[in-house]
Amino acid sequence: TSSPAAPSSQNLTGAGGWSPLTSDRYQWLEVDLGERTKITAVATQGRYGSSDWLTSYLLMFSDTGHNWKQYRQEDSIGSFPGNSNADSVVQYKLQQPAVARFLRLIPLDWNPSGRIGLRLETYGCPYTSDVVSLDGSSSSSLVYRLSPGTRRTPRDVVSLKFKTVRNSGSLLHAEGDGGLSLSLELERGKLQLLLRRDDTRCSSSEPRRLASLGSLLDDQHWHHLAVERRSSHLNLTVDKHTERVQIPAEFIVSKGNFRGCLENLLYNSLNLIQLVKHKDHQVKGNVTFSCVEPVSVAVTFPGPQSFLQLPGASASSSSGGVSVGFQFRTWNKAGLLLTFGLPQEGGVVWLYLNEARLRLQIHKAGRALLELTAGSALNDGQWHSVELNSRRGRLSITVDKEEGGGAHASPTFPVAIQSQLFFGGKNDGQECRNPFNVFQGCMRLLTLDNQDVDLIMVQQKELGTFSNLQIDMCGIIDRCSPSRCEHGGRCSQSWIAFHCNCSDSGYSGATCHSSVYEQSCEAYKHNGNTSGHFYIDVDGSGPIRPQLVYCNMTEENTWMVIQHNNTEATRLRPSSLGNQHSVHFDYATEEEQLSVAISQSEHCEQELSYQCRRSRLLNTPEGSPFSWWLGGPGAGRVQTYWGGAQPGSQQCACGLQGDCVDPQHYCNCDADRMEWTEDSGLLTHKESLPVRSLVLGDIQRPGSEAAYRVGPLRCHGDKNFWNAAFFDKETSYLHFPTFHGELSADISFLFKTTASSGVFLENLGIKDFIRIELSSSTQVVFSFDVGNGPLEVRVESSVPLDDNRWHRVRAERNVKEASLRLDDLPAATQEAPADGHFHLQLNSQLFIGGTASRQKGFRGCIRSLQLNGVTLDLEERARITPGVRPGCPGHCSSYGSFCQNRGRCVERVNGFHCDCGLSAYTGVFCNTEVSASFKSGTSVSYTFKEPYELSRNSSALPSSIYSDTTLRGENVSLSFRTSQSPAVLFYCQLVLQRLEVRYKLDGGRDAEVLRSRARSLANGQLHTVTIRRLSDSVQRMKNCIHLLTVHECLPAASDDLDPDLARLGSLGFTGCLSVVSFNSISPLKAALLHPDTSPVIITGPLARSNCGSSASANPYAAENTHHLSDRSGSVGSGQPLVNAIRTDSALIGGLIAVVIFVVVTGLAITARFLYRRKETYRNQEVKGVNQDDSPDFPFNNQADPQNASSENPKEYFI
C-alpha cells in the first residue's frame, strides 16, 4: 500500500507504473512479499512513456508492517541512486541481504520536469527459520545439557538471532566446572559478557564483566549473536563486530532466560529449536514456536524543521488540567520536547532538555513564572518516560517513574492547554517562536488525558499536522558502537555526528588516528631536539602504543636507550639455595614495542659483563656451558656466547681476540683462578637482543665469587627515516601492491625537488582513486574519490617548495574528514559528506613518483614514505627499477641551520653531522657551552704559532685550536660569572663593579680606556661580553693569550705592561669563564678538550663545569648580554666607538658603591695622566673603513708584507 495512491505495476517490463497524486517526500510505495524473504537486490525504472522517474530514494524493511528499519549502505549511507530517464533500469545489489516481509520505498528526489514515477522489482528467495518466543518468566526458557560421557571438542559455537523491546534481561547462561559460569545479559541495550564464581552453589559473588558489545539492541529488530570457544578464549560477535575474550575454564551451554524472540538457535550445528519441537531429552523448555511481538509505533524527529502538532484536550474533558505522557530517546543534550499555550493571555509552557536534564518553564510576558528540573544524563540513547500532570493546583513532572525521578510545584495560576500541543519543535508560522534547540530523537507511546495517540492516523493525515517526521520507525544510530575513535580515544556523540576526545592518548586528528610523537630518536634530533626523555611511536598510526625512552644526542650517532630493572653490577656469593642463579630482566617497554624498535634500528648493542674469582663461565666450546643467557623476541632463545664474541661460538671476547689469561680457554673466567678477572663486551647481534634472562651456574663452590652486569639496550639509526629514492625522470616511478585504506588512511613522507610540479603518489580503482601531488611550486593537493565525487584538499605555502630542501607532507582521510598538512603550516581540512562515509575501493597498483599514464611524474627525492604507519621500502624497489636511484644525498640544505655558533654542517649518507671545529661550543648542534671554574691560582695561556709552524701542524685538529698570527682586527667574546671585583678579563677588568676595556695597541702609547655604563656585574650572574675592532693595518700577534692572568704567568718583558693591569692581574680570578673565542680560535675549548695537542699552558686547577649555563645560576636571574664594538679609521687616529648596552641588573650597595666609585675613579684619572702617550706607529695614508662594512669583521689571517707594521709584541689578557 502507499499514500495516497496504489501502484499500477510492480514489474519493470510492464507499462504504466506507480505515480502518487501529490509529489512530495511524504509518499511511499509499500510491497508485501507474503512471507519473510531474503532480499538481495532492487531495481527501479521510470513510469512508462513519461517524464516521471526517481533520482534518489530510501529503502525500509519490516517483518510486521510496523517498526520500519532503514537500510543503509556501508553502515552509513542511507540513500540509493535512482534513474536518469524513464526507460533505463538501475539495479542495486544489497551489500548485506535484508530479511523482511515488507519493503517500503520512500522517494527523496525526482525529475524536476516531471513527477514521482516508478516501476520496481525486487530480487531474493524465501527465508526459512525456526523461531521461539520467551516471555521472561522463570518457566519460559531453553535448557540444553550435554549427555554423560560426551567428548569435549576443542571448539564450541553457539549462534542465534534475537529481537526484543526490553533493554535488560539474561539471554544466555553457561555453566562450567568449579562453580564458574558465564552469562550474556542485556544491560541498557548493550550485551554484557559476565563471569561469576559460585562458591556455595547458593549465592554467587559479584560478577566480573569481560566484554561489552552492541548498542540499541532493544530496537525490536533482529540481531545476530555468535559465541565461539577456542581453548581458553571466546570470540564474541554481535551483528558484524567481534571481540576476543580470555576465559578461565571450559563451559557448556546450560540455560537461558530472555524475554523476546530467538531464531535459529544452533549449538555446534545442532538446531536446538528443532530438538525442542521433537521433544529431545537433552533440551527442555516452555516456549512458543512463533515470534509474538508488541506493536509500538515510534516517530523520528530528524532535523530542524521537524515538529508534531496535536489538538489539545478533547471537549469531553472537563477536568481543566493537563495530562501528557510520552517516551523519548536521544543523544543530544538539549532540545524542545513539548510546548503549549496557556489559556491566560501570553502564557507558554516549555518542556525541554538542557544539559541532559529535563526542565519545565512557564513564561509570561517575557519572564519565567515557574521552573522545574528533573532527571540527569537523559542523552544516553535509552528510552526515558516523561509524564506532565496538572490537577487541582498541583503541577508535577516525572522522569522514569520506576526510578522515582521528578519535581512538582503549586502554581498560583491554572495550567491547562489552550488549543494545540507541539512535540519536538514548533511551527515557525506560529506567533511564538521556539527559543530552544530543536529536538532530534525518537518518541513513542504518546498519551493525552490518558488516551493513546494513534500515530498511524497522524501519518495518514487524519490527526494533527507534522513536518519532516519519520513515522513508524526510530532512526536512532549509535555512532560510538563500534567506536570509530582509535587508540583509546573516547567517543561521544550527538544525533548527527560523533566526536573523539584524544587527550592523554598520544594521538590526534578527528578519529585519534595520527601519532603526535616521532617514530625514533633520529627523527627527534632532526627536529632540532637535544638529549632527553621522549615518547616514540615506532609504528606511527599503527596499533603499537608510544613508549618512553631516553635519546642520547651527545655523540655523532643518536642513541635510543631502553632501561630494564637491573642495570647495575650485582655481586654474587656461594649460596645454599641451589647450584644456579637465575635472574630475569623486565624492560620499560612492551614486547611489541621492543621488537619493532630493534628491527628498524640500524645498529643495537647491549653490554654483558661478568667479573669472577673461581667462577667459571662457559667452560670449553666442546663442553656444556656453566652459564648462559636468553635473548631475542618473546621469552628469548638460549645463547651460549658472551659479550664481544659471535653467536654460537661459545666464546668470550678474549677467545675471539686470542688474548685470554689461559690460552687453553676461550674466556678469562674459565681459567678458574683465585685472582679477580673479567669477561665483558657488547652484544650486537640484533636477532639475539634484548637479553631476557641470565643463568649463572658456577657460584656454589667455596671461594667462588662473581658479579654480573647487563647494561641497557642501546640502538641508533632509523632505517625507515632515511629510506629514500631519487626520481630523475618524469616517466620514472615505483610501484607497490594496492593500498588498503577503506575507512581510515594516513600517508606521510618527505620530499625535495627543483621541479615545480609532479605527482607524488597515485592509486586507482574502477571509480575511486587517491592522489597526492605538487600542483605548483607553492601548493600541494590531496585528492580522492570514494564514489560520491572527487574531493580536494589544498595547502598553499608562502615559500617555494622547489627549493631542494626537505618538506614534510601528512595526509589523512577518515570517516569524519580529510586533512592535509605541509611542514608546520596549519592543516587544511574538508569534512566528510553529511550523508555518511564510503569505503575507499582501489584495485590498481600503487604508483610512487609517477602515475599509471606515466605523465606528470615527480622529479626529485621522496623519503620515509609511510602508509597507515607501515614504511614502504623505496630503496629496495629502486635498486631494480630503471630511472630511480636508491637513497638521496644532500641534507645540509634542510638541516644545516641546526648547526649553531659557527658550527659547520657535514653531509652523511643518512643525515648530517655538525662540525664544531670553528666554534667555541661543542655538542651535537654546537650549542653546548664549554665552561670552566677558575680558582685564584688558575690560568690558561695560549701561544700563537708562526706560519711555518702552522704548516707543520696542519693535521686534522680543529681550526679552533690553531690560528695564524696575522690579524686585521679582533673579534673577542666570552661569558663570565663571578662575585670578585676587581679582576682581569682580556683587557676587560671589573673595576668598582663596572665593565672597563683597555686597549694598548703599541708599547709606546697609553692604554685607551672604555667604560661600560652597566653596573653591578660582579653579582654572580652570567654576563656575556663581545669586543670587536677593525683596523686597516696588519698586526702581528706574538706570545700568548692569558685566560686569567696571575703574576706568575706575566711575560718577562713586563715593562710594557700597564701597571694597573699588572696590579690587578696579580690578584687572580675566582669565578667562571665560558665560550671564550678570539677570532677563529677557542682557547678555553682547546685547553679543556685538547690539552695535549693544543698550544696551551695550564697553571693551577682547571676543571670543566656547566657554570656557563644560564640554568646553573639562580633560576630567577636573567642572562645579561653586553656588546662593546670598535671601528677605527686610519691607524693610530680616532677614538674607539663605544656601544655599551645598559642592563637591567639591580644596583647593589647603594650609597656605599657610589662613595667607592668616586674615590677610585679619582685615583684612576690621576694615574691616566701620569703616563705619556707614545706614538710609535707610522702614519699610513690608507682609506678609512667604510661604514657599510660587514659587522661580522671578516678578518684576513694571511700575512701581508706590504702593509705589515713593526712586529711589536702584543699580549691580550682574558
Summed over residues and divided by their number, the pLDDT gives a mean of 79
The CATH architecture designation of the domain at 299-428 and 436-471 is: Sandwich
Count of DSSP H/I helices: 11
Supply the helix-strand structural class. Answer: mainly beta
Radius of gyration: 43 Å
Helix content: under 10%
Which residues form runs of ≥5 with pLDDT under 50? 1-10, 249-256, 947-955, 987-994, 1034-1055, 1113-1151, 1167-1214
Classify the fold: give the CATH topology of the domain at 299-428 and 436-471. Jelly Rolls
Shape: globular
Number of strands: 82
CATH class bucket of the domain at 299-428 and 436-471? Mainly Beta
Largest sheet: 8 strands, antiparallel
Described by its quaternary structure, the protein is: single chain
CA-to-CA gap between the ends?
103 Å
Strand content: 35-45%
Subcellular location: Membrane
Domain F5/8 type C: 1-125
Main location: membrane
Protein name: Contactin associated protein like 3
Describe this structure in words.
There is one protein chain. The protein contains 11 helices and 82 strands. By secondary structure, it is mostly beta strands. Among the domains are: 98 residues, Jelly Rolls, CATH 2.60.120.260; 142 residues, Jelly Rolls (Sandwich); 166 residues, Jelly Rolls; 38 residues, Laminin, CATH 2.10.25.10; 122 residues, no CATH class; 166 residues, Jelly Rolls. A hairpin with a 2-residue loop joins strand 15 and strand 16. The chain starts with a strand and ends with a strand. The relative contact order is 0.06. The N terminus and C terminus are likely disordered.
